[in-house]
Amino acid sequence: MTHPWFFPHDMPPLFYAEPTTADTRLACRLLTRMQQDSRLRHERICIEVQNRVVVLEGTVSTAGLSAEAHALAWRTPGVHDVSNRLRHLEG
């Protein structure tokens, strides 16, 4: 004989939908802003945040896009400092 299995309504989720640390939330906020920017959306940018300091690494097509990513990071609420380590492909 089989018995149905019911999940309680008040069980905590196994995976949290929201980031758990302030730095992770800040990185997700900046990632969302970069994805919404049509110029930065397809660039290869890695975002790391530690103690509210954003580190941008990767490659972008032009120096102008590197500057745009840097400025966007600074305009993100909660950012204390930005380290721009982006390389650009134009020679």
Strand content: 25-35%
Q: Unreliable segments (pLDDT under 50, ≥5 consecutive)?
A: none
The number of helical elements comes to: 2
Shape: globular
Protein name: BON domain-containing protein
Domain BON: 22-90
Pfam families: BON
Write the layout of secondary structure elements.
Elements: H1 22-36, E1 44-50, E2 53-60, H2 63-74, E3 81-88
Parallel strand pairs: 2-3
Antiparallel strand pairs: 1-2
Commentary on this structure:
This is BON domain-containing protein. Pfam families: BON (PF04972). This protein has 91 residues and is an alpha+beta fold. The protein has one domain (22-88): 2-Layer Sandwich (Histidine-containing Protein, Chain: A), CATH 3.30.1340. It contains two helices and three strands. The chain is globular and about 40 Å long.
What key phrases describe this protein's structure?
91 residues, alpha+beta, 3-stranded mixed sheet, Histidine-containing Protein, Chain: A, 3 strands
Quick rundown:
By secondary structure, the chain is of the alpha+beta class. The protein contains 2 helices and 3 strands; from the N terminus they run αββαβ.
